[in-house]
Each structure stands twice: as C-alpha cells, then as structure tokens.
Amino acid sequence: MRVVLAIAGRDLRALLHHATGWAVAAGFLLLAGVFWLALLDGYVVHGQEQLYDPYSSVQLSLTNHLLAPYFGNLTVLVLFVAPAVAMRSFADEVRAGTVALLATSPITAWQIVLGKYLGSLGYVLVLVAATLWMPLSLLAWTVPDPGAVVGGYLATVLLAATVVAIGTLVSATTEHPLVALVLTFALTLVLWIVGWVDPDPTSPIGQLSLAVHVQDMIHGALRRSDLSYFALLVGWCLFATWQRVLAWRYA
Questions:
Q1: Neighbours of 107 (CB within 10 A)
Q2: Staple 92 to which of 35, 88, 107, 226, CB 3.0 to 4.6 Å?
C-alpha cells in the first residue's frame, strides 16, 4: 500500500503543478458555485411567491427543488472534469517514453494501476469536497435532509470513481492526452444517455445507464444494484488497465 500511495501522491502533485489541473479546478468550482447560487435564488423567489399564493399547486421541497437539481448539475460537471484529470495518467508516460521503465520496475502491475487511479481520483475528490460548503450553508436557516446530502455526494463520488477508471483505461491505450480526453468523454456520454433508448429504468438497457443509477441516489434511494453497477464497472476498467500494463511488461 505504501508504494501505491507513493505513486498516487506523485501523480497528485503533478496535477497540482500543471496548469491543466488548476484550470480544471477553477472551471469546476466556478460553475458549481454559479449553479448553486442560481438554484438558491430561484428557490427563494418561488418561496416568496408562495407567500402571496398559499394555494399554489407547487409545493416547494428543499430536497426536490434545490438539493436534487444541484447534485444533478454537479454530476454533469464531473462528466467533464474527471476525463480531463485522468487523461494524463498513462498517456504522459507513453509519450515521454518512461512507460517501459515504469512497467519493468520492481513494483507490481496492480500497484502501478491503483496508484495512477487513486492519484487522479484523489484530485477529483478534493474538488468535490471543496463544494461541501454549499449545501452545508443551509444550516444557517434550516436543516436539509441528511439522506439527500449524503446520497447526492455518494452519487457524485461513485460517478467520479467510474469516470476516472474509464479515463485511466483509455489513457493507457494512447500517447495523446487530448485523444484520451475525447474518447473518455465520448464513452461516458454514451453510458449517460443510453437510458434514453428505453425510458424504463428497470429494463436491461436502462440499467446500463449511468444517469439511472445516479438519479436514484440523488433522491436518497440507495440500492444494492446501484452500488454493484459502479463496482463492476470500476473493477472491469481497472482489470483491463492491469492487462495493458502487463502487456508493456512482457512486450
């Protein structure tokens, strides 16, 4: 585990010292803040309108009209941010010609894969953690539903873990980070919208959709099928990446 953390720490520091890492962080936090303030302003305006129309058919709910839309926007931002973070994990090594040295080092292929993966994922999780102040700021006026907050962040973290795993695998197949970025985003977008083919979330096609499993947790519903979906997808991507590193080692 010490070796894995050392690799993860090296990659995390590399992201912190690279302009791309700071650009991604600035864009993510700026958009997250804008979305939060816009939703909060809309919620306040609708609440004021209900003071003059108490018989309105729309009953405001903090969870359904503020927290759920916010986490929905946050997960969409992760779809853009995670590929940009993971695109350099192996592609930079291939382009610099250091991948052979890395693959033939005395550490195992699994340690390399996990270290690279955790380095990228750690950076995304730091960005997600930096948004905690937004829902927690509601404590100054009311107590938000803990299940909605925990479920929203759990959905965001699991989605980030999945997209980073896909990005790590794609990055191991090319020496161009921009190619890895585009391919990762394309794959995750397909997984996100595949549920549109069949609107029934219980259908086989619906169960393939990232959005279906994310939406359940955003609304506070935690199912074993959702956790299994993310675990299997992450596990398969890391296994395929491990096979790729082994191919370099025995080439």
A1: 15
A2: 88
CB 249 within 8 Å of CB 104: yes
Three-class secondary structure assignment of 208-236: CCHHHHHHHHHCCCCCHHHHHHHHHHHHH
Amino acid residing at 212: V
Record the tokens describing residue 220, joined without a space: 């506070």
72 contact partners, CB below 8 Å, separation of at least 6: 215, 218
Residue found by looking up tokens 């083919």 in the block = 197
The pair of three-digit structure tokens given for residue 145, joined into one six-digit string: 């539903």
* pLDDT score of 27: 92
Contacts of 157 (CB under 8 A, 6+ apart): 125, 128
Rg of the Cα atoms in the chain: 20
Q: How far is it, in rounded angstroms, from Cα 202 to Cα 213?
A: 10
Tally the residues of the chain: 251
- Among candidates 84, 91, 74, 98, which has minimal Cα distance to 15? 84
Domain ranges of the chain: 2-249
pLDDT digits (tens, 9 = 90+) for 188-199: 999 888 877 777
- CA–CA gap between residue 137 and residue 165 (Å, rounded): 32
